[in-house]
Write a structure and sequence with these properties.
One of its GO terms (cellular component) is anaphase-promoting complex. By secondary structure, the chain is mainly α. Helices cover 59% and strands 4% of the residues. The N and C termini lie far apart (137 Å).
């Protein structure tokens, strides 16, 4: 019994000498002979598995109580990046040194495992070193402090800066540069080489301990993301005329990935030094970084997309880049939302002129069509612009003015192309399409608007804002009438050219009235020449030369005739002579003068000056009355001219500004024979600054057209007592909207018209039925 106890005591003493970790020590004290004897005993008593488990358990206890706390103790929070760099390096060096001391113990355990008995249950697939590294990782990460990423970030940020600086070392360094960009030290004390060496050594130790990915993976990812974002912002901010994607991808490959390979290879610059597992992991990480690069670039371009659109086509490279990015990222909804907000904030408000909104809309059409040829983005983004343009009264006039602009403009260039107008009436012929090239709409497309997206022409898109070309044709008629009435001659070459271009767009039937208007100008020139060559007309002494523009009343837009100007008798007599000459020439036809329209060339002689000036008949009538009497009150002039006093005051202000009239007291004006301004020229040809349209506004014309329906509506309600609006609309389409030149009225417009009649007490609304009030 005593011998057995003595052998047991000797066995445990030998075990503690061979594996001092059991007593909490690392330094071994045994010889190779003692270790060989212990192995024989262990194999004899078949306790190999038990001994290995006991030793590994004690190793784990030692690491948990001594190594891990010492390692994490150095991970303190600091804002000093240099101190953070040194703390992390010191912590890794000490950890590596501490764990290296376990190597003799691990070798002995591995020897025991390799020389175990045949009946042992120890798993041969897991070696002792792998178990040791697993214990180290698990123990360290189980005691992870909250601020551990602080000094790790400092370490890799400094190393990345040094690497980027060395990568750009080929660039010229100015003499005045006395500080190293990489390490932020003076050039004489540059520590870049030392930092690179310490960086590679630290990574090599972490790789050897298999701690690199677990310990610094998140910090590396975050740091690289920040660097990518800053680089993209610095490179691409507000630069739209150069494509950036290729240069960004090259930077990612040559700088970021090269640095990442050096991190995971312990200093090597090629992936050959890496294992297959690490190489595959780096390739996957590269794909993620590439996706993040595209996402970051896409977000920046989306933030600047409004400016990109305004600068298009100079910004086409940026649009091309964004088109590629949208194919790789799921950012279409973000693009639509951000761009709509930018448009509403920067474009769709009262401070922006309608022509500027139309110009921006045209740029958006071209840019978004290039970005997305399917038209889905254009449809989604520009819907607020369409609604806002419909709410502005001068939208149609702005578009027509741009179409007829002699200076270079987008719409004028589009008009010259001469493509046919395409309307969103759902009548597109699908049979004309090549079915082999058919592509389905994107998933975010509205299936109800599939036909409308085929419209690619800019003018057609603008016309489709209102859904009808009638408004544009009527506005062109009004604009053409203003141009023809404002010119001082019979020249129509420019207008004929515009009309022919518009006929290719809108069709000849729509513009027939405009052809008649231009023919009236041509006929007026011929008739005026015939009248002046008539001997009977020339026998009567002509006090002043008279020419007339003879209009066909049925084909011209209605005129503004709120009041009728009474001309001086000398002028009226001359016009009557012209009418008689016309009647003699045309037989059963006569002229009805529009005295407020036209141009008058005046030669005004005063005491100290002489003026040659072109004015309207109203202005000419005012100054002619001052030829008879030097002083007039506003009310007297209004009675003589049959004109409203408010209109006369505005017209007299023109002569006051020219220095011919002066207001001596309230509403009393006197002719000034002598000029009070020394700077005024003796001979001056002046045009009135603000030219008013002689034609009725589009809203006034539409109101007059809608009055045509009123007699029909009264007749319906007289016979049928009460009707809903749907029935009224149906009957109007059947009876009142038939035949050539018929006026059409949509249901929303009819509802507004009837509601206005209700407010004027001309109709009664009971439930959803309209009826006439009882008389």
């Amino acid at each position: 019994m005593a011998k057995i106890e003595e052998k047991s005591i000797n066995f445990f003493e030998q075990l503690e000498r061979v594996f001092p970790i059991i007593k909490g020590k690392i330094q071994e004290e045994c010889t190779e002979e003692e270790f060989a004897n212990l192995v024989e005993i262990i194999q004899f008593v078949k306790t190999t598995e038990y001994i290995i488990e006991v030793v590994i358990h004690n190793i784990e206890q030692y690491i948990r109580c001594h190594v891990a706390p010492t390692f994490w103790k150095k991970f303190e929070y600091t804002e000093d990046s240099q101190r953070g760099f040194e703390l992390f390096k010191s912590a890794v060096d000490d950890l590596y040194t501490s764990l290296t001391e376990f190597l003799p113990i691990l070798k002995k355990l591995e020897f025991l495992r390799q020389n175990k008995g045949e009946t042992s249950n120890i798993d041969n697939s897991i070696d002792i070193e792998a178990q040791f590294k697993l214990i180290v990782r698990a123990t360290l990460l189980s005691q992870l402090p909250l601020c551990h990423e602080c000094i790790i970030e400092h370490f890799y940020k400094i190393a990345f800066n040094v690497f980027c600086n060395s990568d750009n070392s080929s660039q010229d360094i100015s003499i005045s540069e006395i500080q190293c960009i990489g390490c932020s030290q003076e050039m004489e004390n540059c520590r870049c080489q030392m930092i690179v060496y310490m960086f590679h050594e630290t990574n090599r130790k972490l790789i050897e301990l298999e701690l690199l990915e677990r310990l610094v993976g998140n910090v590396l990812t975050s740091l690289i993301h920040i660097r990518i974002k800053n680089h993209v912002i610095q490179t691409c901010d507000k630069t739209f005329d150069v494509s950036q994607l290729i240069s960004l991808e090259n930077w990612l490959e040559t700088v970021v990935m090269n640095w990442l390979i050096r991190v995971y290879s312990g200093g090597f610059s090629k992936t050959v030094a890496l294992s297959d597992e690490v190489r595959n992991a780096i390739n996957k990480f590269k794909q993620k970084l590439s996706h993040f690069l595209y996402e970051t670039y896409t977000n920046i371009r989306i933030d600047h997309l409004f400016n990109i659109i305004i600068e298009y086509p100079e910004s086409q490279p940026a649009v091309d880049d964004l088109r590629v990015c949208l194919e790789r990222t799921d950012k279409r909804k973000v693009l639509v939302k951000n761009l709509q907000e930018a448009i509403k904030t920067r474009l769709l408000h009262a401070g922006v002129n309608t022509p500027d909104i139309v110009t921006a809309y045209i740029a958006a059409i071209k840019a978004l069509k290039h970005l997305d040829p399917t038209g889905v983005l254009l449809e989604a983004v520009t819907e607020p612009i369409k609604c806002y343009l419909r709410s502005r009264e001068d939208t149609v006039r702005s578009v027509v003015n741009s179409l007829l602009d002699d200076s270079p403009s987008e719409l004028a260039d589009e008009l010259v192309k001469g493509e046919c107008l395409q309307l969103d009436d759902g009548s597109a012929d699908d049979e004309t399409e090549d079915w082999e090239k058919w592509m389905p709409d994107p998933v975010d497309a509205d299936p109800a608007k599939s036909t409308q997206r085929k419209v690619s022409d800019i003018i057609s898109t603008l016309v489709n804002v209102y859904g009808s070309q009638d408004l544009f044709v009527n506005e062109y008629r009004t604009l053409l009438a203003d141009r023809l009435l404002s010119q001082l001659n019979y020249h129509t070459e420019r207008e004929i050219r515009h009309l022919e271009l518009l006929k290719r767009r809108f069709g000849e039937n729509q513009l027939h009235y405009c052809e008649v208007m231009l023919k009236d100008v041509y006929d007026s020139k011929r008739i005026d020449g015939n009248i002046h060559s008539d001997t009977s007309y020339n026998l009567q002494r002509e006090l002043f030369p008279t020419s007339a523009l003879i209009l066909s009343a049925q084909f011209w837009p209605p005129f503004k005739e709120d009041w009728k100007l009474k001309l001086p008798s000398i002028v009226q007599n001359q016009l009557n002579k012209y009418v008689k000459a016309f009647e003699a020439l045309k037989g059963n036809r006569t002229l009805c003068w529009k005295p407020h329209l036209g141009n008058v060339s005046l030669e005004i002689e005063l005491k100290d000056r002489k003026l040659d000036i072109n004015v309207t008949p109203v202005h000419a009538t005012i100054i002619l009355h001052f030829q008879d009497k030097n002083e007039w009150t506003l009310q007297e002039l209004a009675e003589v001219m049959h004109a409203p006093a408010t209109v006369l005051r505005r017209k007299i202000a023109f002569w006051v500004s020219q220095g011919l009239l002066k207001e001596t007291s309230s509403d009393v004006f006197v002719l000034q024979e002598e000029s009070t301004s020394k700077n005024r020229l003796s001979t001056d040809i002046v045009e009135e600054e603000e030219t008013e349209s002689a034609m009725a506004s589009a809203s006034d014309q539409r109101e007059e057209e809608l009055q045509v329906f009123w007699s029909y509506i009264v007749g319906m309600l007289t016979n049928l007592e009460s009707l809903p609006i749907e029935r009224i609309h149906q009957m109007l389409k059947m009876f009142a909207s038939q035949g050539p030149g018929a006026v059409e009225c949509g249901l929303p417009e009819l509802r507004q018209f009837l509601d206005r009649k209700v407010r004027e007490h001309q109709l009664l609304l009971s439930g959803s039925f309209y009826r006439l009030p009882k008389s």
